[in-house]
Write a structure and sequence with these properties.
By secondary structure, the protein is an alpha/beta fold. It has a single domain, classed as Rossmann fold (3-Layer(aba) Sandwich), CATH 3.40.50. It is 48% helix and 16% strand. The chain has 9 helices and 7 strands. The chain has a 7-stranded parallel sheet with strand order 3-2-1-4-5-6-7, sandwiched between helices. Helix 1 links the parallel strand 1 and strand 2. The longest helix is centred in the middle third of the chain and has 29 residues.
Length: 248
């Protein structure tokens, strides 16, 4: 897999799955923009990649803020030129009964997991269309495919991202742009570390492989969609869940 000299933007790249994706894309030769709201962690991740001999730089973006997204998109293209690969990886949620949530919390979850990726995609899409080339990979969640106890609004937002992926793939195929979606199952990330141990152990028992996924395993699926080996693949949803969800 070679992405030599391709410009790749990865949101949520300061930690977890996003950090793993940034590493895999950089190793494949891409010039990686480590995008995150966490400046210190983002700078550190970009520095790690550079220390390993890769090309990477950190640029801050708040995926819940329209002005931040617009400024970020403009800055990336002014500094590095048109984006070849966009990975919408930033995501966050909490676990609680739906009726305990507040409209303010719902707005934040929906903005980060659904509206933010739409805004950034729209900002970077014109140059992809102009060049008739581009790869967009949205990282959703199996919660958006099958639902998740205590994550109703998060599941809804991720379900929206899945549907957005399929519809956008139909619209942009005529421009030679591939749009696909990776749905991680339970994965060993900082977010999962906040889940009670009894819940984590129950998940492991339910997963056919009897373990959590590793961020690098999700990243491998993202890199597949980002490369030429997936040139005839678009509008697809790939679950990386150890067999936990098997949906047609």
């Amino acid at each position: 897999m070679s992405l030599k000299d391709k410009v790749a933007v990865v949101t949520g790249a300061a930690s977890g799955i996003g950090a793993a994706v940034a590493g895999k894309l950089a190793a494949a030769g891409a010039v990686v923009v480590v995008a995150d709201v966490q400046a210190e962690k983002g700078e550190a991740r970009a520095a790690e990649l550079r220390a390993a001999g890769h090309r990477a730089e950190f640029m801050r973006v708040d995926m819940t803020d329209a002005a931040s997204i617009a400024a970020f998109a403009a800055a990336v293209q002014a500094r590095l030129g048109p984006v070849d690969v966009l990975v919408n990886g930033a995501g966050w949620g909490t676990t609680h009964p739906f009726w305990e949530g507040t409209p303010e919390l719902w707005d934040r979850i929906i903005a980060l997991n659904f509206v933010g990726p739409m805004r950034l995609t729209k900002a970077l899409l014109p140059e992809m269309m102009k060049r008739a080339s581009g790869k967009i990979v949205n990282i959703a969640s199996d919660a958006g495919r099958v639902g998740s106890l205590g994550e109703t609004v998060y599941s809804g937002a991720k379900g929206g991202l899945i549907a957005f992926t399929k519809s956008l793939a139909r619209e942009t195929a005529r421009y030679g742009i591939n749009v696909n979606c990776v749905c991680p199952g339970p994965t060993d990330t900082p977010l999962m570390a906040a889940v009670p141990e009894k819940v984590t152990e129950a998940l492991k028992k339910a997963i056919p492989f009897r373990r959590l996924g590793r961020p690098e395993e999700v990243a491998d699926a993202v890199v597949f969609f980002a490369g030429d080996t997936a040139s005839y693949v678009t509008g697809q949803v790939l679950s990386v869940s150890g067999g936990l969800t098997m949906v047609g």
